[in-house]
Design brief:
- This protein is of the alpha/beta class.
- It has 14 helices and 27 strands.
- The strands form 7 sheets. Strands 3-2-12-11-13-14-15-16-17 form a 9-stranded mixed beta sheet, sandwiched between helices. Strands 5-4-6-7 form a 4-stranded parallel beta sheet, sandwiched between helices. Strands 18-19-21-22 form a 4-stranded antiparallel beta sheet.
- Strand 26, helix 13 (about 440-445) and strand 27 form a beta-alpha-beta unit.
- It is globular and about 70 Å long.
Length: about 475
């Protein structure tokens, strides 16, 4: 069989690149490929002694850091599958995920989670006396990621690829034997997948336990990182740093900035293009399910403002409510399929049903349209669509307009029951720290940006964070809380 077993990556890189070349850098701590390989073996012996075997799953409720990477590779070494989850997830939701995933073992740094799930500590296996190498096994799935989706009900997305992979130099512009940075949480798919496939290509990973805008710039400069993936919330916080602070960090080595996970407003995208250049700013639209993506360079975006790109090795259809394909410019549900998919799914759900059609086209549930050149534009998720007074209001469009305000830090738009309109557009807004704005400020700001029926009829101001570390929002939960 061709390909590299992921559990062998630290050992192979230690032999090829040298044991002292650094592999991981987190919050000032570094570890070389050689030490990483030894630590992975110790942890793998400990996991095996605890009963983990080929085909099992290991739940990892850990913050970003060296411990998490070591345990991921140790899990792969045994032919088992890592199942990373947020270490700040509510216990009830975490229990529901554990019931779905049936992990053989759980590991966490959180005392409450440890008690609730009987989990082992983050240092589990680090001091195991046995460090002898043994034959690496192949896991049937290389990752199991969790998602609450727009429904708020947890589900597992089981990747169909085993833990044996080919290295594809240049895929997503990831450097070979270089340095990439991880800004988002590794329990989300894009950071997890790109970090570990970059290591497969010999690249070192620089990360942070928790995102900090200036801290990321310092990390990029210190490690000479060539590649990073962000979400719009992170990009917004970096953009709002004072210009002298941004200018004080040398980002000349940074070749590629990807953003994903949430819509980006045009003003913020333009800022990053003006700052770093369009050739360095890239966008990807897809999902953990991995059945297709669209991609877009900053140069293309300037010619197709608002687009998320064209499909890469895939096809896109926009279908109406009757299932018929819609012409360019008309909004419908987005369906995509991999070229040559041949009926082989890229994933399996646990706890949910896919939206796969008999001809292999699938949907994430998003609404959008295509232009005449085949570039895709996202409207919103069907489940988030607000029907107000006979009009379709897409929350993402209203949120983008709100985020254009120079002092709005976060904004989430939901629909609430309204006796007159059926549903009213309600905006939850968090101002930048130290700023005290009003509804009048926002109404004036939106007056020349949105037609009247799209503007919020009610506002709510909060100091609570509205999105998680990966820029995701649970509108369903926010709606239920207010109902």
């Amino acid at each position: 069989m061709t390909g590299i077993l992921l559990g062998d990556v630290p050992r192979l890189n230690a032999a090829r690149l040298g044991p002292d070349r650094w592999a991981l850098h987190y919050d000032g701590a570094r570890i070389g490929w050689g030490k990483l390989a030894r630590n992975v073996l110790r942890r793998a012996h400990a996991l095996r002694a605890a009963g983990v075997a080929q085909g099992d799953r290991v739940l990892l409720a850990l913050p970003n850091g060296i411990d998490l990477h070591e345990l991921v590779f140790a899990t792969w070494k045994l032919g088992a599958t890592p199942m990373p989850v947020s270490s700040r997830m509510p216990i009830a939701e975490l229990r529901a995920i554990a019931e779905l995933g049936e992990p053989r073992l759980a590991i966490t740094a959180d005392a409450v989670i440890a008690q609730a799930l009987g989990a082992r500590p983050a240092q589990f296996g680090a001091d195991h006396p046995e460090a002898a190498d043994f034959a690496t096994l192949e896991a049937p799935s290389w990752k199991v990621m969790t998602s609450g989706g727009s429904t708020g009900r947890p589900k597992l997305i089981v990747d169909a690829l085993p833990s044996r992979m080919q290295s594809y130099p240049g895929m997503l512009r990831v450097p070979v034997d270089g340095v990439i940075a991880v800004a988002g949480p590794l329990y989300h798919n894009m950071p997890f997948a790109t970090a570990h496939t970059a290591m497969l290509s010999g690249s070192s990973v620089a990360g942070m336990a928790r995102f900090d805008a200036e801290g990321l710039l310092a990390l990029l400069a210190q490690t000479h990182a060539q590649w990073v993936t962000l979400v719009p919330t992170m990009m917004q916080r970096i953009a709002r740093l004072p210009e002298p602070i941004r200018a004080s960090y040398d980002l000349s080595n940074l070749e590629t900035v990807w953003h994903t996970a949430a819509p980006i407003n045009e003003a913020l995208k333009q800022f990053w293009i003006d700052w770093l250049g369009p050739e360095r700013i890239w966008e990807i639209y897809g999902g953990t399910e991995g059945f297709a993506t669209t991609q877009l360079s900053g140069t293309e975006w300037l010619a197709h403002r608002g687009s998320v790109g064209r499909p890469v090795g895939a096809e896109v259809l926009i279908l109406g409510e009757d299932g018929a394909a819609l012409p360019p410019g008309e909004v419908g549900e987005i369906y995509m399929r991999r070229a040559g998919a041949g009926g082989t799914p890229s994933y399996a759900y646990v706890g949910a049903q896919s939206r796969r059609l008999p001809d292999d086209f699938e949907s994430f549930g998003d609404q959008g349209w295509l232009d005449a050149e085949g570039y895709l534009y996202i409207a919103d998720r069907r489940t988030d669509l607000i029907l107000s007074g006979g009009h379709n209001v897409y929350p993402a469009e209203v949120e983008r307009a709100l985020l254009d305000h120079p002092h709005v830090s976060e904004a989430v738009v939901i629909g609430l029951p309204d006796a007159d309109m059926g549903a009213r557009v309600h905006a939850i807004v968090r101002w930048e720290e130290g700023h005290k704005g009003s509804e009048d400020d926002l109404n004036a700001h939106l007056a020349d940006r949105l037609v009247g029926w799209k503007r919020p009829r009610s506002f709510e101001f909060t100091q609570a964070l509205l999105r998680d570390e990966a820029g995701k929002v649970r509108r369903s939960r926010l709606r239920e809380e207010r109902l």
